[in-house]
Amino acid sequence: KQEVTQIPAALSVPEGENLVLNCSFTDSAIYNLQWFRQDPGKGLTSLLLIQSSQREQTSGRLNASLDKSSGRSTLYIAASQPGDSATYLCAVMRRETSGSRLTFGEGTQLTVNP
Amino acid sequence: DTEVTQTPKHLVMGMTNKKSLKCEQHMGHRAMYWYKQKAKKPPELMFVYSYEKLSINESVPSRFSPECPNSSLLNLHLHALQPEDSALYLCASRHRGRGSPLHFGNGTRLTVT
Q1: pLDDT for B21-30, tens place per residue?
Q2: Contacts of A89 in chain B (CB under 8 A)
Q3: Among B50, B98, B109, whose Cβ lies nearest the Cβ of A52?
Q4: What pLDDT band is residue A96 in, cutting at 50, 70 and 90?
Q5: Which residues, in sequence order, are CB contacts of B7 under 8 Å at separation 6+?
Q6: Whether the Cβ atoms of residue B60 and residue B87 lie closer than 8 Å to each other
Q7: Nearest CA-CA distance, residue B33 and chain A, Å
Q8: Is pLDDT above 60 for B1?
Q9: Is residue B82's pLDDT more than 70?
Q10: Can you say how many angstroms the Cα of residue A30 is from the centroid of all Cα atoms in its chain?
Q11: CB contact at 8 A, B101 and B94
């Protein structure tokens, strides 16, 4: 059974700091890995998707890397802003005969202080 | 704004009520999902529909009954729920293919009294 772990569980940083969120997974036979952002009481917003054959993806101030063999991914946020405050979730997708299944980590709650 | 629309946003129901949650997307996605999320926990998969057919049921109790009437709509029928079923219910959809992200709606906040 796939297990996804995110470290740290919570992070508080001053505005402008660069930061790294970590995600690890136990089964390297993944289809893709996604990073999501969730604001309180809201749905999830997809930030970046890395296919199993890719090493990294970038979008604006965000950069996500994937090392499938070691079961690790990182989300790098440059020049953090108070608006980045949210819970960040890592999820890995595995393709099965019955369909594609996404398994989530517990999330990292990020607070960026002005 | 999300491209996956869920209604209602909030729902309060008694344990003897029957209600339905609705989800709609017009992105041509053929895979649709129901997730349940408790406070400060990650979403838990409930059901997956692929081409309007139920492909995954994560051993969800029968008081939750999914339905996919067409490729744009997904319903979740609720009957005889328990207070512990109170949660945020999220719908999501995606195209097939490893490069296709999952798109989530904003969810329905369900309270069972």
Answers
A1: 999 999 999 9
A2: 42
A3: B98
A4: confident
A5: B21, B22, B108
A6: no
A7: 10
A8: no
A9: yes
A10: 15
A11: yes
CB pairs A-B closer than 8 Å: 63
Question: What average pLDDT does range B42-54 have in this prediction?
Answer: 95
Token digits for A69?
């063999």
Sequence-distant (≥ 6) Cβ neighbours of residue B43 within 8 angstroms:
A44, A104, B35, B36, B37, B90
CB of B74 closer than 8 Å to CB of B23: yes
Tell me the residue ranges of DSSP E strands in chain A: 4-7, 10-14, 19-25, 32-38, 44-51, 56-59, 62-67, 72-77, 86-96, 99-104, 108-113
State phi, psi for B85 to the nearest 5 degrees.
-80, -5
Find the chain A residues whose C-beta atoms sit closer than 8 A to any C-beta of B: 31-32, 34, 36, 41-46, 49, 51-52, 89, 91, 93, 95, 98-102, 104-107
The total of other beta-carbon atoms located within 10 Å of residue A101's CB is: 18
Letter for the amino acid at B2?
A: T
pLDDT top residue among A97 and B13 = B13
Distances (CA, A) of B29 to A3, A71, A95, B101: 27, 29, 17, 11
On chain A, the residues whose CB falls within 8 A of the CB of B50 are 99
Q: Distance from CA of residue A33 to its chain's centroid?
A: 8
What tokens were used for B45? 């998969």
